[in-house]
Amino acid sequence: MSSLTSISIRRPVATAMFYLVVITVGVVGFRYLPVDLLPNIEFTQITVWTQYPNVGPEEVETIITDPIENALAGIPNVERVTSRSGDGSSRVSLEFARGTDLAEASNDIRDALNRVVTSLPPEVEPPRIWKFDPNSFAIVVIAAQSNRPMDELTRVLERDISNRFEQIKGVGTIDVWGGIYREVHVDLNRDRLKASGLTAEDVRSAIAAENSRLPGGNVKQGLNDLYVRTRGEYTSVDQIARTVVANVNGKPIRVQDVAAVEDGYEDISRLVELQDVPTIRMMVRKQTGANTVAVADEIKKEIERVNLERSDLKLTVISDQSDFIQQSISNVQSAALWGSLLALLVLYIFLRNGSTTFIIALSIPISVIATFGLLYFGGLTLNQMTFGGLALGIGMIVDNAIVVLENIVRLREEKKESLKVSANLGTKQVTGAIIASTLTTSVIFLPLAFAQTISGALFQSLAIVVVFSLLCSLLVALTLVPMLSSRFLSVKKEGTEEGEESAIEKSRMRTFFRNMENWYSDMLRKALRHRPAI
Is residue 268 within 8 Å of 207, Cβ to Cβ? Predict the structure, then answer.
């Protein structure tokens, strides 16, 4: 470290260029850093969700939940299994140990489900695997209002408006809630079914059999192979009504004979209103790793363009996660900025010298900007935890520079050394002390690196930022501070005319500190004379 200090003093241009490169990398990294509320955290939990419509909770537990639990019990790294059986649905949640590869765990779950799914009733829907992901929450929720009928508005949103938002960089999925969807209703007449000797299952099977598309093989035409298929899907409601269910006494019984077929809409399960007006809600999610604030800004710009281009609908933002993120980040930024200014104010009050305050003050922005480079290349984001780490570390960043500069000033004033000798020797004398001080502070955050909990993973990014900023401040104190001191320090030697007339010597603050040092020296001598009592 002492040789590093000597090189920085002898090569001021190279030292300045090195820190200019650090500043450039940090500034560029800051521009491209994603902004989010919290760090990316992987929750080690996977849920298997199975639906069995119109079945009670006890039957669901016996028929679905218990077999799935038994099938998943042998999956490795599972720490806890919880289940919940409800009306027509079953949920089995598996919590894995920290560090488990969830992609591999998902494959193990699928293999286990394949062994048990064949034993489930045919009416049971295929089990679905769901992983909790904070990115799955909508970053922007949009309300759409129109004078169109709700079914037409639903189609416009799904076929036109959604496509426009999906083209925005960083946008993931878009869900439309509260819409009205077309549905063909077959309302059975129980008396006619009974008279015909048919059941509801007969009608359902007949409709399902007729509404199908089947492969027909290949037909050769010269050198070409033509794919043949049967097109049996319904294209109108009348075709469904004329479907033959069965033949009774030589007469065909059609669907229209035992049921009323009409082109209608699904039952409304979600009702969305904005100011007592029926509304359709669009939930926009971002892609993993995308900048939440930047994506939300682009979405709001697209909303303005849609409102200007279309007079038949109006889009309104009813929830924007980026507003809360920007407010939170702004509060932390403000705290960090004011902390820096107060730190510089305290330094100037104690040092009462512009050059020394300026030299120490450089360690704050350089260490902070260098940390932005670490965040960028480390794949981290600007969030409450990383900004909180910067705000926490700002007060400690200047410690190393203060210790080094104070010793340089002492050699300059008391030993009457030249600027270069004072800078070199003064730094070497305290190198071991500031390295030990920085390491002891950094070691405090070491246990967070081994934390296996969600909260521990949450604070790891804070610890990384604090430790790296402290290490940067150590490097600055050992290189940049002595280099600048050897060139720009304005403290004069004691005993010279300039030193006797200097403002520092005349200041009351300086006199106050000298008196305090003398008082402390007297107290220390008395304490050493009474060692047993102390």
Answer: no
Task: Considering only the C-alpha atoms of the chain, give the largest distance between any 2 of them, rounded to a whole number of Å.
Answer: 129
pLDDT computed for residue 504 by the predictor? 45
Nearest to 214 by CA among 193, 192, 232: 232
Contact present, 164 and 303 (Cβ < 8 Å): no
Contacts of 33 (CB under 8 A, 6+ apart): 372, 375, 376, 380, 381, 382
DSSP 382: B
Give residue 39's pLDDT band: very low, low, confident or very high (50, 70, 90): confident
Would you list the DSSP string of 452-518?
Answer: -SHHHHHHHHHHHHHHHHHHHHHHHHHTHHHHHHHHH--PPPTTSHHHHH-HHHH-HHHHHHHHHHH
| 243 close to 203: Cβ distance less than 8 angstroms | no
* Nearest partner of 167 among 293, 282, 287, judged by Cα: 287
* Residues sharing a CB contact under 8 Å with residue 50, sequence separation 6 or more, in sequence order: 64, 68, 89, 90, 91, 120, 124, 125, 126, 127, 128
Which pLDDT band, with edges at 50, 70 and 90, does 458 fall under?
confident
Taking the CB of residue 415, how many other CB atoms lie within 10 A of it? 13
| Contact call for residues 184 and 262 (beta carbons, < 8 A) | yes
pLDDT per position as a tens digit, 297-324: 999 999 999 999 988 889 999 988 888 8
CB-based burial of residue 532 (10 Å sphere; 0-12 exposed, 13-18 middle, 19+ buried)? exposed
In 3-state terms, what secondary structure has residue 289?
coil
| Pairwise CA distance, residues 455 & 451, whole Å | 8
| Pair of tokens at residue 442 | 């950094």
Nearest C-alpha neighbor of 181 from the set 160, 158, 204, 164: 158
In this prediction the pTM is 0.68
Q: Are 436 and 330 in contact (CB under 8 A)?
A: no
CA nearest neighbour of 280 among 312, 305, 315: 315
Beta-sheet pairing, 224-231 with 213-221: antiparallel
Provide the token pair at 322: 């980026």
Report residue 522 as tokens.
């007297």
Positive or negative, the CA dihedral 397, 401, 404, 407 is negative
Place of tokens 């889009």: 315
d(CA 63, CA 120): 7
115 with 145: CB under 8 angstroms?
A: no
Predicted confidence (pLDDT) per residue in 401-434, tens digit: 889 988 888 888 777 778 888 889 989 999 999 9
Q: What is the mean pLDDT of the chain?
A: 84
